[in-house]
Structures are given as structure tokens and as C-alpha cells.
Amino acid sequence: MIHYTCDGCGRTINLDDETRYVVRLEVYAAIDDDDAPDVVDVVDEEDHLDELEDLLERMDELDEDEDQRLYRQARYDLCPQCRERFVRNPVGRGATRLGFSDN
């Protein structure tokens, strides 16, 4: 029998009594508008094969740690309670704030 553990709270998810939720997360480096080619550049009759070849060579040279910073995919199983928490606050804002006084 397959059993699932909630990646949020660590308890076993009982499939007979509750629904298991899956969160798929994809994080990748964004291209800023300044880096995006203009329409005029695309229409140019320049040969972009050299630029593409350079880009592919640089990608091959990336070490695994740097590759993880550019693109990462993850999958998490959540129980109904952790799913509700995730939906309310998907990026965890305020989760680690400490209650310091103003003095």
C-alpha cells in the first residue's frame, strides 16, 4: 500500500478520510525587458547562429549549483490543513518575522 506524508507538517495523509493535494513549483531566471530583443533586432538580417552557439556553450559550462539557481522544479504533497495555509500565504510572507519592540 502506498502512503503519503505531508511535506508541510510531516504527518501521514490518510487517503480514506482526506484529500491529498499536490503543489508543483517551478522557479526560473527571468529575462528582463532590457535583455529581450527588440522587434527590429529580430527582423534584422543578421545571422544569430553565432550568438546561439555562444549561449549553448555557456550553458554547458554551468556547474550544477549555478544550474539550480537558474531553474528548479519541485513537487510537494500537502494535507488539507497545510493546503489551506499554503493557499492563504504561498510565499510565506511574515512567517519568520520576530516580534521586536520599537525601542
Task: Break the fold down into its secondary structure elements and pairings.
Blueprint (H helix, E strand, L loop, with lengths): L3 E2 L6 E2 L7 E8 L10 H5 L5 H13 L2 H7 E8 L1 H9 L15
Commentary on this structure:
The chain is α+β, with helices and mostly antiparallel strands and 103 residues long. It is built from four helices and four strands; from the N terminus they run E-E-E-H-H-H-E-H. The protein has helices at 39-43, 49-61, 64-70, 80-88, and strands spanning 4-5, 12-13, 21-28, 71-78. The strands form two sheets. It has a two-stranded antiparallel sheet. Strand 1 and strand 2 (12-13) form a beta hairpin. It is elongated and about 60 Å long. It starts with a strand and ends in a 15-residue tail after the last helix. The mean pLDDT is 80.
What is the mean predicted local confidence, pLDDT? 80
Radius of gyration: 22 Å
Number of helices: 4
Task: Profile the largest sheet.
Answer: 2 strands, antiparallel
Tags for this model:
two-stranded antiparallel sheet, 103 residues, 33% helix, alpha+beta, two-stranded antiparallel ribbon, 19% strand
Quick structural gist:
By secondary structure, the chain is an alpha+beta fold. Helices cover 33% and strands 19% of the residues.
